[in-house]
Amino acid sequence: MVAGWFAGDGEGFHLLGTRCSTCSAVFFPREDTFCRNPGCGGGELEEVPLSRRGRVWSYTDSRYRPPSPYVSDPELPWEPYTLIAVELEAEQIVVLGQTVPGISVADLTVGMEVEVVPGVLNEEAETAWTTWHWRPTGATA
Description:
0% of the residues lie in helices and 43% in strands. It is built from no helices and nine strands. The strands form two sheets. Strands 5-6-7-9-8 form a five-stranded mixed barrel.
């Protein structure tokens, strides 16, 4: 888990961003040092929960093992996954992430509504690395 990127669980799960108090620009991943808006000189940022739902902006699949410095066990077979870019309407930003397992590019269309849910990036004996996934609304996967 990346501290400060998301919070909550179940229906209360949401991504965390920051908003500039000067220009109201919203950032994800969060920004804690300065406003990334080049036209703003503001520096006071506040943590804000981001919308739980958005619309598919774009998507693709990852059918090959990425090169280094990506970390993966070369002894294990590569498991393809679907990447999705979601536009959060209220914040007007696009957030990239994986879909929930079982959702492929064949299940997605641009403009489709999706929601953010907790996910697991990797698990080992006593450790689980958590992340967020996007799931089409109404899906139970």
